[in-house]
Design a protein that fits this description.
9 strands; about 270 residues; globular; alpha/beta; nine-stranded mixed sheet; TIM Barrel
């Protein structure tokens, strides 16, 4: 009898440390869950978005050479030309959408046999931010300009997505092949217009004040999860702009399942996604 008691005590003494270790591991997993990398490992530079790309020293070229999946250009219609700038006071008549983006893109498409990249599996989106008021002629001018390039009209794996002050639902619904729109989560669109909405984008500040340092608040994390889940349930991609732009924030975007990671730091994000 005494031997049995001693054996049970010995067994508990052996097992107890293992239970403590398991509990500590589970606790560590819970606290790190908001910042760990996506377990699927599916993220690559194809999930990278070059925000306000025209402000880069090597606009278009650097993001393109990094094989980013999305590149952004803001435009204003001035004297019949689509000029690239963040603010209208900064427009320069030599910095046109055509010269900065469409012409080099068309050359690459021709060189790659109808594809934006050498790898025919790689996609590229040119996200064109309409800065003029809603339903201005800038959208129609942009579409006409894109379609004036034969290589861009017929390119596979290439997408032109308009964002910002996008046109009314009736205009969106009539968009030609290869032309799509960036919507806003929670905003109502007609059924026909929604078919042309490829992606949803929102201001990260609407969900959280987290600056990329430390751990994001649980309530903020849940709000972001809800937005991502709703977008994917609707069959749409999602992106957050004005988000912290550092490795911790990039990892959070992966964990959330965000489709495009917004960045001004092309090389750093490229390295992070290798």
């Amino acid at each position: 009898m005494n031997q049995k008691i001693r054996r049970k005590r010995h067994d508990w003494t052996t097992v107890r440390p293992l239970i403590v270790i398991v509990c500590l591991c589970l606790l560590a997993g819970c606290t790190a869950s908001h910042t760990r990398e996506s377990p699927t490992g599916r993220y690559s530079v194809q999930n990278a978005h070059s925000h306000n790309d025209y402000e880069q020293a090597n606009y278009f070229t650097e993001a393109y050479n990094a094989r980013f999946g999305s590149i952004e250009a803001d435009i204003y219609l001035v004297d019949g030309k689509l000029l690239v700038a963040h603010n209208k006071k900064d427009v320069n008549p030599t910095k046109t959408l055509a010269a900065m983006y469409l012409e080099p893109l068309a050359r690459h498409v021709e060189e790659n046999g109808g594809y934006p990249y050498v790898s025919h599996n790689a996609q590229l989106e040119l996200l064109i931010d309409l800065k003029d008021p809603k339903d201005s002629p800038a959208y129609q001018k942009g579409v006409a300009l894109i379609r004036s390039y034969k290589a861009l009209r017929n390119s596979r794996q290439l997408r032109f997505t308009f964002t910002g002050n996008i046109p009314s639902d009736s205009v969106m619904a009539k968009a030609t092949a290869g032309i799509f729109f960036d919507g806003v989560p929670g905003r109502s669109y007609s059924k026909a217009a929604m078919k042309k909405v490829y992606m949803l984008s929102d201001n990260f500040a609407n969900y959280s004040t987290w600056n990329g340092d430390g751990r994001i608040a649980d309530t903020d994390y849940k709000k972001l999860v809800s937005a991502v889940t709703a977008a994917h349930k609707a069959g749409k991609k999602i992106r957050f702009w004005n988000a912290p732009d550092n490795p911790a924030a990039w990892r959070l975007m992966e964990t959330l399942g965000v489709d495009y990671i917004n960045t001004d730091k092309i090389r750093a994000l490229q390295e992070s996604l290798k």
